[in-house]
Amino acid sequence: MSITAKSAPSAHVDAVAIRSWKVPILLGVLALFAVVVFVVLGPTGTATFRISQDNDAWQVPDLVLPSKAMGIIVSVICAALAYLAYSQTRATGKIAKWVLMTFTIVFVVGLMVWMIGGTTSQNITLVGLFTGAMLITTPLVFGSLSGVLSERAGVVNIAIEGQLLAGAFTAALVSSITHNAFAGLFAAAVAGVLVSAMLALFSIKYVVNQIIVGVVLNVLVSGLTGFLFEKIMKTKVDGVTIYNQPAQLPGIPIPLLSEIPIIGPMLFRQSLIGYFMLILVVALWFGLFRTRWGLRVRAVGEHPKAADTVGINVNRTRVMNVLAGGAVAGVGGAYFTLVAVSSFSKDMTGGLGFIALAALIFGRWNPIGAALAALLFGVAGNLQSILSLAGTPIDGQFLAMLPYALTILAVSGFVGKAMAPAADGEPYVKE
Amino acid sequence: MANDHIDLVVQSGEIHSLLGENGAGKSTLMNVLYGLYEPSDGEILIDDVPVRFSGPADAMAAGIGMVHQHFMLVPVFTVAENVALGAESTTFGGVLNLEETRKKIREISAKFGFDVDPDALVEDLPVGVQQRVEIIKALVRNSKILILDEPTAVLTPQETDELMDIMAQLKAGGTSIVFISHKLREVKAVSDTITVIRRGKVVGSAAPSASTTELAALMVGRAVNLTLDKAPANPGEVTFKVSNLTVMNDAGQRLLDDVTLSVAQGEILAVAGVQGNGQSELTEAVLGLQKHVLGSITLGGTELVGKSVRQILDSGVGFVPEDRQDDGLVGEFSIAENLVLDLYKHEPYSRRGTMDRAVVAKNAVDKVAEYDVRAQSSQDAADTLSGGNQQKVVLARELSRPLKLFIASQPTRGVDVGSIEFLHKRIVAERDAGTPVVIVSTELDEVLELADRIAVLFAGRLMGIVPGKSSRALLGLMMAGLPAAEAQEQMDNQAKEANGTDNSNGTGVQP
């Protein structure tokens, strides 16, 4: 039997007629910014990047760069790449990926040299930058993985912030009472599950708008933990706030690996939660894209009815995933009070749950992508605090804004089309 | 009640057709058989053994497979992933073993002559091939009974013939097939037994030898005139011209590519083609709804490209959109309000910025009577009406003012046969009043019924314009991407080979 079905509407791309000049214009403006700020207004002297710490086994020499010269080099490369983007757009309407990548890297290097060179000390410890970033990155990764779990199954999870906060509070409380950090960790996971159980109940069973439920849960958890913090944790017995003295999870450095410059201190001198995070990112990626469980979860998030017609229980899959997401975010919340700081304070997650949501979108609903996005946000956030300590001339408030500006760019699809699961946020109701 | 005490017996190895109008309850019945809905009464027996399905998984385990009207395929998955879903072969610990599935797909492909690549993404495949993926899905699960729900709705006539061949092969292999359709010609061609359903009840069964008029009468419940009495067209001046029209999406893909056509006053031009070949873009470009439009569209010498939708409508364009529920009506508004949706700001419906509700209500009563809209009251919400009555409301509104051009997209999709008759008569009446009329339809029957001339679109390109009495076979070739001249040549060659014997699926007369 012959197959006559011609390949369907072979719509050919006609780049001549529709071109977007947004990217070349943006690159041009940034190149101009580089010339003016990095070179003309740029600092004199050098910028020193310290790679090793004093007590490291392997000492890597410091990287010392002359600010002015680097500014000129960066400006020239940026201008050349901007022109290349312009000519590529004019010729084909498409800009090669490497042009954008190289531009970004070169520009960021220029920015760093300019900022470090402008501080009073004119040096920065890269180890400090990256290890410090992990304080922000770790909860972000857990938060975004919670989002991956529920959104891949088609439930929008705005309640990450609430799940983190509930985890942080419960971990502190239980760890203080039991004097056992592991009990705190377990309780935090349970608290995250409870928050997401409410999300599952209202958004899946009662088909309430998922975004509204999520927002309300965040406010609820913030109010509840704030109330209990005032009423319980501030109670002093013999002058000590005994309910806010959580036992901490110890750091477990891994021999040899922890001695690798930068990566060692960053990834291999962590607590249990940190190692769990590394395993979880890889396991979740493998689970989603290589196993039966993942295939079914993705089908439920993309086309729930198709999943239903092959015998997959759509709403049960969604509930299980939302609950699992809650446990993951709860553990991430425990990081705040069992590892990062030694006590709970009101609203201590400070909006990181929303940044985690941005990391999820930036990472295109992929566990590894989300983790890398979380790392980027973590570094940007930490850079800001390091720079203000190092005495940068830039206003601290302005720097504090940068991670969020980056977030808006990421979420607004600047980095390419964000591809959400097709049925994300849509309840599945059988007729 | 969608199904009322239906009895249906399907023999093994037969093709059993379920014939009924849209909304007669065919799909509901099949969804019950497939475990998607629970019956409130009655039972299902397979090989004389009663079975109870609490979900599709049970139905599949019992050997029932279903190809849904809207394909149940995940667009971003590969063919293999879609086939595997729900019945995955795995290695240790639930890790997917797609190689097993690929092997099965290749086996079935080879057996039935499907040309399906297990690693292709479903969203990249033409609908005809997607349908084969659906059939493979059922076969991989060893279905003994295959339910095909309106499978030909999205196919070209040639693809339909191929599907019928596949059905014959499956039948020869012992599979029972339930074929659901409202197309009389197809049901007659393929069935062993025909069961007719009307308003949720079985109203009779027929042999495939029954005539189409008999079947139609059984399906509708009264004698229907299947052929439209329409006088030959009397084309006047050519007032509507489309030249070198190109429509692109944001990515620069040409969804409509260099289309040139014109329509005279008092003439119906039907635009035929498989769904998604540029028809929507054509009508939307005329209405000013598309962003990237090159070329020119003139009506009575006035250029329409670049004008706003309001200006275009005010210049005398009546438009029936393809999706009446989303684009044609506001479901929560009353019938009366929907009837003045584009006229509300003009006299006499409103004066000095205030709507005159009495005039609007009076207009509604008149229009409801004139167009025979079956409603309790003209103040009822539009979405309480049946599909056919909703379409009458849309048509009544669009035809209520003097027109210089009338465009109707899928004017009778999902409409009962009784209403189709009425709607077609109104459209022909508009033509006879001297309006240029453009009909866009994916139903070849409708195209042949109404058209004075037929334009065929494929992949956004015009394959040619042929007379209204062209044969199905010729149109089918054009719908599959052959330009008119080549299609005609191929037809002539076939006719020479067959030496005068009639073409197998040609019911029309060759031009």
From TrEMBL, chain A:
Its main location: membrane. It is found in: Cell membrane. One of its GO terms (molecular function) is transmembrane transporter activity. It comes from the Bacteria. GO terms for cellular component: plasma membrane. Keywords: Cell membrane, Membrane, Transmembrane, Transmembrane helix. The chain crosses the membrane at residues 25-49, 69-86, 98-117, 123-142, 154-175, 181-204, 211-229, 272-289, 322-342, 348-365, 372-392, 398-416. It is a multi-pass membrane protein. InterPro entries: ABC_transp_permease. This is ABC transporter permease. The lineage of its organism: Bacteria, Bacillati, Actinomycetota, Actinomycetes, Micrococcales.
